[in-house]
Amino acid sequence: MGENEQIKALFERVCYDNSVQAYNELYIALCTRLIHFSASIVSSYHLAEEIVSDVFLSLWQKKNELSHVQNPVVYLYVSTKNRSLNTLQEQKRHQHDSLDELNTDMLAIAPEAENGMVSAEVSQKIERAIRSLPARCQLIFRLIKQDRLSYREVAELLNISTKTVDAQLTIAVKKISLAIRFDLSDETAQTYLRLDS
Fold first, then answer.
1. Could you tell me if 96 and 103 are in contact, meaning their C-beta atoms sit under 8 angstroms apart?
2. Which has the higher per-residue pLDDT, 150 or 56?
3. How far is CA 37 from CA 27, 51, 190, in A?
4. Do 99-193 and 3-93 fall under one CATH topology?
5. pLDDT over threshold 90, residue 132
6. Is domain 3-93 annotated with CATH 3.40.50.300?
7. 117 or 193: which leads in pLDDT
8. Handedness of CA 172, 174, 180, 186 (dihedral sign)
9. Residues 6+ apart with CB under 8 A from 34
10. What phi and psi, each to the nearest 5 degrees, are found at residue 146?
């Protein structure tokens, strides 16, 4: 029996016998291929895994209505493609939900002249430097420096690792230090930009 016949047999057992075992075998047989296919559309393996998982969930929910399906492989690919494209549309519609498409103007809060340590002019330079950072980097810097969140809290909030938080902060601090290097002594800049992990 060829692979497609095997898949057809498993699909029929799902539809006619409500077989959980056949359903699991069908998933194992196809999930890797479908995830790669979906990822080529949505450019994210993580998202593709969710999409394929949804496709199979939907298959299980509608299994008794699908006995007419002649080619289960094509059916599952088409379902995956449709769901991937819908997800892409949703993402475009809610682009501000993506951390890389943030409306950074909403984040802009001029750093306070901490204890008179930083003049208003330098404060503006710092703000310009922060605004020039990539959106996610900027958000992380502000959450830690201005909102006083810990590395762990930011990691949890944004669903990223504390290593990523640390790496993004290093980029931010380097850029800002560079922007104000002629205005503040190294020591003052270090004190101002000190970030406690």
1. yes
2. 56
3. 15, 11, 48
4. no
5. no
6. no
7. 193
8. positive
9. 48, 52, 55, 76, 77, 80
10. -100, -40
Q: Which of 47-51, 77-81, 170-174, 192-196 has the lowest mean pLDDT?
A: 192-196
What is the per-residue pLDDT across 108-118, written as a single tens digit (0 to 9) for each? 444 444 445 56
The DSSP-derived string for the chain is --HHHHHHHHHHHHHHH--HHHHHHHHHHHHHHHHHHHHHHHS-HHHHHHHHHHHHHHHHHHGGG-TT-S-HHHHHHHHHHHHHHHHHHHHHHTGGGSGGG--GGGG--PPP-GGG-S-HHHHHHHHHHHHTS-HHHHHHHHHHHTS---HHHHHHHHT--HHHHHHHHHHHHHHHHHHTTTTS-HHHHHHHH----
Residue 192 has pLDDT above 70, yes or no: no
Per-residue model confidence (pLDDT) at position 21 = 96
Say yes or no: domain 99-193 is CATH 3.40.50.1980.
no
Domain spans of the chain, in order of start: 3-93, 99-193
For the entire predicted model, the pTM comes to: 0.49
pLDDT at 116: 55
Estimate the crossing angle of helix 151-158 against helix 162-179, to 10 degrees.
110
The token duo for 94 is: 């809610």
